[in-house]
Specification:
This protein is of the alpha+beta class and 109 residues long. The radius of gyration is 13 Å and the shape is globular. A hairpin with a 7-residue loop joins strand 3 and strand 4. Strands 1-2-3-4-5 form a five-stranded antiparallel β-sheet, covered by helices on one side. The N and C termini lie far apart (33 Å). It has two helices and five strands. The longest helix is centred in the first third of the chain and has 12 residues.
Length: 109
């Protein structure tokens, strides 16, 4: 948790998460945009257990302390994904982490 600051009051988080949400749909992932987070689900793979029937993660957006306070996306366990201005990179990382096909999805740029 030392990697990130309090992300609950980051003013651009909703807009940045919305942009990420749009890009994640290219990979066939389901998303639920909330005020301070983006839930991402891979409906095409089985999850690990009854409590997690499909691979999923909750993405947040906020300043990264060790990067001059610039906005970054973070996983639910606090791992930095990508700078928030790098939507394509962040989406690819999330899709890969959740096991979505990325090479033949037409998502490449």
């Amino acid at each position: 948790m030392s990697e990130r600051l309090d992300q609950t009051n980051y003013p651009d988080a909703y807009a940045r998460l919305g942009a990420l949400m749009s890009r994640l749909h290219v990979y066939g992932l389901k998303t639920v945009l909330q005020r301070r987070s983006l839930i991402v689900i891979n409906p095409n793979l089985p999850g690990c257990c009854e409590g997690a029937p499909q691979p999923a993660d909750t993405i947040t957006c906020g300043p990264r302390e060790d990067d001059g306070g610039r906005a970054w996306f973070f996983t639910s366990w606090g791992k930095p994904i990508a700078e928030a201005s790098h939507i394509v990179d962040a989406a690819l990382t999330v899709a890969t982490t959740l096991g979505a096909p990325t090479s033949e999805s037409g998502a490449g740029e």
